[in-house]
Design brief:
Elements (H helix, E strand, L loop, with lengths): L15 E10 L7 E6 L20 E4 L9 H5 L24 H5 L5 E4 L1 E3 L1 H9 L2 H7 L2 E5 L7 H13 L3 E6 L5 H10 L2 E5 L5 H8 L4 H12 L4 E7 L7 H12 L7 E5 L5 H7 L13 H12 L5 E3 L5
Parallel strand pairs: 2-6, 6-7, 7-8, 8-9, 9-10, 10-11
Antiparallel strand pairs: 1-2, 1-5, 3-4
Length: 316
């Protein structure tokens, strides 16, 4: 990830690509929240359940079950010349503008444009409509992804606008950013939702594409500066549920300058079908959702180290 600059890589003059605005979320920070999902991520976790978040640009997803091969998408495409096949996800010959014309023309809804450029003022105005829910529950707005720190200038502007309107803000991050970027954002956000995926550097790099040294260093620095942080641990059987990793993580969290709650999030393979619809190769892994008993055992093991631990993404 590039350091903070006047223009964010991957952004456009009209903003950055947002692919979902999820209302009434109760697992992305305190209270009832509206979560804004931004496209683009520097990690490539092989368990990722939202593959539509990886690419920073809009892209077209195809639901083959809805496709009737009518050819409307071919006719609408400004690059096809009428020759591109109408069915299936293997449609991109490298000339796609990702303009969404094919999705707009599809009569059966088989094609969907994932991601729309949103400007700061427009985006904040939309989430502010949910203020009654925030006020009643102590909730607010959460910026997630992908990795929202890919666009520090845009994200900072959103956080500043929310602060001016009195909206509580959270940023969901992998922590993989420069110290300046994450420090600047931490000073603007009310809380950081900070992922810890694995404590071993080699295992982390093998399964996410990046090592964890910067992530751990940033977390320690943020804790020392008094940032409010909720640490989140995605529990993935066969990857990070081993006793050594759990003990190392507990020791690390316990050694931080300040105390922070830890939330254990059970893995769910909800993104498998999305890879096919996006024309992306499915990761060659076989991760399973942990049983309720396994989740409870991990929570209790971590609590035994004196940590405040919660099962799921919200306070119990």
């Amino acid at each position: 990830m590039k350091p903070h600059s006047s223009a964010d890589p991957g952004s456009t003059p009209s903003g950055v690509a947002v692919f979902n605005i999820q209302r009434c979320s109760i697992h992305d920070g305190p209270g009832i929240r509206t979560t804004v999902f931004i496209k683009g991520c520097p990690l490539r976790c092989d368990w990722c359940h939202i593959p539509e978040s990886l690419d920073g640009a809009p892209e077209v997803a195809i639901n083959e079950a809805k496709c009737t091969a009518c050819g409307a998408c071919v006719e609408a495409c400004p690059e096809s010349g009428g020759e591109r096949p109408a069915r299936g996800p293997d449609w991109d010959d490298g000339n796609c503008r990702r303009c969404g014309a094919c999705a707009e023309a599809c009569p059966g809804g088989a094609r969907e444009l994932i991601g729309e450029a949103r400007a700061v003022a427009d985006l904040v105005a939309e989430v502010e409509r949910d203020r009654p829910f925030f006020d009643a529950s102590g909730g607010g707005v959460t910026f997630s992804g992908g990795e929202p720190l890919c666009y520090p200038t845009f994200l900072a502007a959103c956080l500043e606008a929310c602060r001016e309107k009195g909206l509580h803000t959270a940023v969901d991050t992998s922590g993989f950013a420069s110290k300046k970027v994450i420090g600047d954002i931490a000073r603007l956000a009310d809380v950081l939702l900070y992922d810890l995926k694995h404590m071993d550097t080699a295992a982390h790099k093998k399964h996410t594409g990046v090592d964890n040294e910067r992530i751990l260093e940033n977390l320690r620095a943020l804790s020392g500066h008094g940032a409010e942080i909720w640490i989140r641990f995605p529990l993935i059987p066969g990857f990070n549920d081993g006793n050594e990793n759990l003990e190392t993580m507990a020791e690390f969290i316990g050694s931080l300058p300040n105390r922070h709650p830890l939330f254990v999030l059970p893995y769910h393979p909800t993104g498998v079908g999305k890879y096919r619809r996006l024309g992306k190769p499915l990761p060659d892994v076989d991760y399973r959702t942990p049983s309720d008993e396994a989740l409870a055992a991990v929570v209790e093991r971590l609590r035994s180290n004196g940590l405040e631990v919660h099962a799921g993404g919200a306070h119990e």
